[in-house]
């Protein structure tokens, strides 16, 4: 079978890598992909928002399955566009991707179905929002309703920060129409974890839990990024806590989506807070694989990823049993200097051939020049994954390989997975 993967980051590299291991996969196309993905897939120069060109390409090449990586095209209905042409596609329809595309929708859904989440109020009027905000204690959390490239959430520790965030969203409109509504939400203390699950209606196959590191600097300092590193499993968190989160949050949410006539098919990603009493509450839902969660979860999947995708598409996910490796995985992201603000592109990268057999290197933002030399071309450049019998071993392998790779101003956190070692 020939496959078309849509997207061009580290997540899509990991998806292509996992699909390439399937004996049933013949040829992989990736639109637009990146230079690293180009080592195992044929790159197609079509952007993720060009639905007509993408569907025409898939028809022309008679691809057997389309897999969609990023959030924006899902929220805009890319899956509906492929389905309209009867092309098999893995991912949620627009009405289900709304669980990521609108925080007010997501919060109202959880409230309606009594699924644990932080208390909140929503507003579309600035004066009312401000009045409410002024009546609440800090810390408090302010969220733009729509997609904002991971930047729409402010955890405010002072009133000034909170009011500034509200003003940015509703008055200065820094996120455009994504900020037409805001959610003002109770601050939750605790440890975060991510649970991704393959979902087909009410059937939920949870993947092993992972933890991301969102802030750019060590010790969770500095601005939020797309994610600076991940690890899986989480040895310092009881399996019972993870299992309970699946039972009380992920499964009821899938069920609620069916009840709302928005059945979810694809990867449902729950961002969770484990509060001090050991119970989890939902922070957010994404309608797709996480980046860089995927880079540590898929290398641990022993089952054939293509079979899993096809089962979800065909509505037979309840008939398969996923097998996971006991190995640990740690991903360290190498970022451009300046990320997540502005950063240079085109910096030469060396050492990609020095990382040895022990590490996997997933490309997020790389390109090759006319001489075939590697260059940076994005904020997050590479995700270096170590696998081992423990988090400690996986972490050592990831950092050993990450140190072999150089580009001017290379930035990585040095404390990825440190929490799991304590
Ligand atoms: P989100 O984009 O919704 O994942 O939010 C980004 C980050 O903000 C989360 O990963 C949390 O670290 C933090 N956050 C969001 N909501 C809350 C909350 N209610 N309490 C504490 N932290 C939160
Ligand atoms: N790593 C977080 C995300 O993919 O949204």
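-> sequence recovered:
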């Amino acid at each position: 079978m020939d496959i078309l993967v849509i997207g061009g980051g580290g997540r899509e590299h990991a998806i292509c890598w996992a699909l390439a291991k399937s004996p049933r996969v013949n040829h992989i196309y990736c639109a637009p992909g990146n230079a690293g993905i180009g080592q195992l897939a044929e790159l197609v120069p079509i952007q993720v928002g060009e639905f007509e060109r993408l569907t025409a390409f898939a028809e022309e090449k008679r691809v057997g399955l389309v897999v969609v990586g990023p959030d924006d095209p899902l929220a805009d209905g890319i899956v509906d566009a492929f389905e309209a042409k009867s092309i098999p596609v893995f991912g949620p329809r627009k009405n289900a991707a709304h669980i990521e595309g609108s925080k007010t929708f997501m919060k109202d859904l959880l409230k309606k179905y009594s699924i644990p989440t932080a208390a909140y109020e929503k507003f579309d009027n600035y004066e009312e929002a401000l009045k409410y905000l002024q009546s609440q204690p800090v810390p408090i959390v302010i969220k733009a309703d729509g997609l904002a490239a991971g930047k729409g959430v402010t955890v405010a520790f002072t009133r000034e920060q909170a009011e500034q965030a509200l003003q940015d969203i509703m008055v200065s409109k820094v996120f455009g129409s994504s900020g037409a509504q805001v959610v003002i939400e109770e601050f939750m203390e605790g440890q975060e974890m991510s649970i991704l699950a393959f979902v087909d209606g009410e059937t939920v196959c949870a993947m092993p839990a992972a933890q991301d590191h969102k802030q750019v600097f060590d010790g969770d300092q500095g601005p939020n990024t797309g994610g600076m590193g991940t690890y899986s499993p989480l040895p310092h968190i009881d399996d019972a806590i993870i299992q309970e989160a699946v039972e009380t949050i992920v499964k009821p949410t899938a069920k609620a989506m069916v009840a709302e006539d928005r059945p979810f098919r694809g990867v449902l990603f729950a961002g969770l807070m484990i509060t001090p009493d050991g119970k989890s509450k939902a922070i957010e839902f994404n309608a797709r694989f996480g980046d860089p969660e995927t880079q540590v979860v898929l290398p641990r999947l022993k089952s054939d990823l293509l079979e899993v995708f096809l089962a979800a598409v065909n509505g037979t996910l309840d008939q398969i049993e996923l097998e996971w490796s006991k190995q640990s995985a740690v991903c360290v992201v190498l970022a451009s200097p300046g990320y997540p603000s502005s950063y240079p592109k085109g910096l030469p990268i060396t050492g990609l051939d020095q990382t040895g057999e022990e590490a996997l290197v997933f490309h997020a933002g790389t390109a090759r020049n006319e001489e075939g030399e590697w260059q940076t071309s994005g904020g997050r450049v590479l995700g270096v994954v170590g696998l081992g019998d423990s988090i400690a071993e996986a972490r050592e392998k990831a950092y050993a390989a990450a140190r072999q790779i150089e580009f001017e101003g290379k930035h990585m956190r040095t404390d990825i997975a440190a929490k799991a070692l304590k």
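Residues 212, 226-227, 286, 290-291, 293 surround glycine (ligand 2) (CB under 6 Å).
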